């Protein structure tokens, strides 16, 4: 028979993940101040810099954000002049998000952020890649387990 897992706070993986997440997002807050972006806004911009002009629904799915969270983010980015929202003429319910010229130009200012974050983490490029892969696997496994527990 295996030993039950400890209930000590220091033994909880969730606490380690929580503390690491807070530390990293706190660093992003400092680094993103010059860009006048919040961390969630930065994630939206990253997705749009990767692939511009896309439906809001698709952007939300990629970022794992519901419309109640994504819509205010997009409105603030639009007010800042970084994105534009357009409704399709043939389907008023469908809204597309695209970068403005200012939004495209901001990419240049953000180019060094990944290096700053990587340096702060004390990981080389290979270690960062392994960490990302492990975190992706962890999220996938936990999501599958949660879905199996949820009643249909």
From TrEMBL:
Describe the location of the HTH marR-type domain by residue ranges.
Answer: 10-140
Q: Which InterPro entries does the protein's record reference?
A: HTH_MarR-typ, MarR/SlyA-like, Transc_reg_Sar_Rot_HTH, WH-like_DNA-bd_sf, WH_DNA-bd_sf
Q: Which UniProt keywords apply?
A: Cytoplasm, DNA-binding, Transcription, Transcription regulation
**Keyword GTP-binding applies:** no
Which SUPFAM superfamilies does this one have?
A: Winged helix' DNA-binding domain
Q: Which domain of life is it from?
A: Bacteria
Q: Where in the cell is it found?
A: Cytoplasm
Q: Give the protein name, as stated in the record.
A: MarR family winged helix-turn-helix transcriptional regulator
